[in-house]
Amino acid sequence: MHELQPKHSRLNKEEAKKLLEKLNISLSQLPKISLEDPAIINNNFQIGEVIRIDRKTEEGEIEFFKVIVK
Fold this sequence. Notes:
Layout: E1 7-10, H1 13-23, E2 32-34, E3 50-57, E4 60-69
Parallel strand pairs: 2-4
Antiparallel strand pairs: 1-3, 3-4
C-alpha cells in the first residue's frame, strides 16, 4: 500500500447493519467499489461487504463507506 493511499477496512455484519440503519438506507444505496479496484485487490475482501475508507485531509480524518461489487 502506498503511503498516500487511504486505509481500507472491512466492517463486520453488525457494524454494516448499524451503519445502514443510522443512514436510513439500503445496501444498494451505498457507493460502490469494484472488487478489482487496485486499492482493495490484495485485501481478501468479498462481494457484498461494506468497507470503510479513512481519508486524511487538512481538517482531519474523514470516513467514507462503500459496498464491494463485481
